[in-house]
Design goal:
By secondary structure, the chain is of the alpha+beta class. It has one domain (3-136): Sufe protein. Chain: A, CATH 3.90.1010.10. Helices cover 42% and strands 20% of the residues. It contains four helices and four strands; from the N terminus they run H-E-E-E-H-H-H-E. The protein has a four-stranded mixed sheet, with helices on one face. It is globular, with a radius of gyration of 14 Å.
């Protein structure tokens, strides 16, 4: 196994075991629930937006290492971004996990999840938090389901 691939796996495992920004957020202005019924991953995303900027973001839930790592890395990447920049990052990340490797250079740590594109069932795990975020940012109501 290459050193880079091993480093990526270690980063995913670290965020999966000790997710950052985990917990609820009383000051959230947007709250959405997301679920992947195929594997049982589920999360609640809490986003506080002030003046069109993500001022605080947390998530709570349970899932596989990829799902939790993706949510953890996502919250780190989004904190302090404008809503517009967050929506661009959503699109770039979605393209990456769909197999568009041209996006890698603009995603920083998020690129560690690019390998899931080779495993279609795992793409849903990696995108659950992101689909839930998109619902929150676009004010779609209801639960987000990745199927």
């Amino acid at each position: 196994m290459s050193d880079v691939r091993e480093l990526y796996q270690q980063l995913i495992l670290d965020h999966g075991r000790k997710p950052r920004n985990f917990g609820s957020l009383d000051s959230a202005t947007h709250i959405r629930h997301g679920v992947n019924p195929l594997c049982g991953d589920h999360l609640v995303l809490y986003v506080e937006i002030k003046d069109e900027v993500i001022s605080s973001i947390k998530f709570d839930g349970d899932g596989c290492a990829i799902s939790l790592a993706s949510a953890s890395l996502m919250t780190e990447a989004l904190l302090g971004l404008s809503v517009q920049a967050a929506q661009k990052l959503f699109n770039d990340f979605h393209n990456l996990v769909a197999g568009d490797n041209n996006m890698v250079s603009s995603l920083g740590k998020l690129e560690v999840l690019g390998g899931v594109s080779a495993y279609p069932a795992r793409v849903k795990c990696a995108t659950l938090a992101w689909q839930t975020l998109n619902s929150a940012l676009t004010n779609d109501s209801g639960e987000v389901t990745t199927e």
